Structure formats: structure tokens, C-alpha cells
Amino acid sequence: MAHEVTVMGRDGCHLCEVAEAEVARICGELGVPWRAEDVDTDPEWRAEYGDRVPVILVDGAEHGYWRVEEDRLRKALKP
Predict the structure, then answer these.
(1) CA 10/CA 15 separation, integer angstroms
(2) InterPro entries attached here (predicted)?
């Protein structure tokens, strides 16, 4: 099964920048596509994730927030 990771964050958020860098590194090593989305571009995203950014989604489901748990993320992305 092919996985996809999304980092839900916002501009100017230091933790979001750190999470994006970590996700980029991990996903790059594993060959998993990822993207970043700005919660402030959509009122529903802002309401859902705005107070917990960055939020990490794996295959569209919430995986974690505030920090990337590398071992846990790698485990979730195993084929």
C-alpha cells in the first residue's frame, strides 16, 4: 500500500518548519510522498487543526501533532 503524509501547519510557525523538515527527510528516505498545507487557507482546516499545528496526517488520518515522533512515523509508513 502506498502511503502519503501531510503536514498541516501555518506560515511563520517554527514548529511547523521543523516538522516539515523532519517529514521531508523521513519520507525522502522511505520514498513516501508528502506535502504541506496551510491551515489558514481553509476555515474548516483552521477550526480542526489551528490550535494544534503542526498536525501530521498519514493517509488522511491524524497521526500526531506538535512534534514528529520519528520511530512511530516510520512504523506507520512501513509497506
Answers:
(1) 10
(2) Glutaredoxin-like, Thioredoxin-like_sf
Neighbouring residues of 64: CB distance < 8 A, sequence distance ≥ 6: 55, 56, 72, 73
Q: Is the pLDDT of residue 1 over 70?
A: no
**What is the enclosing helix (H) or strand (E) of 52?**
none
Which of these, 68, 77, 70, 73, lies nearest to 9 by C-alpha position?
A: 68
The verdict on pTM exceeding 0.90 is yes
Other residues' Cβ atoms within 10 Å of the Cβ of residue 39: 24
Kindly report, residue by residue over 10-47, the tens digit of the pLDDT: 999 999 999 999 999 999 999 999 999 999 999 999 99
Rg (CA), the chain: 12
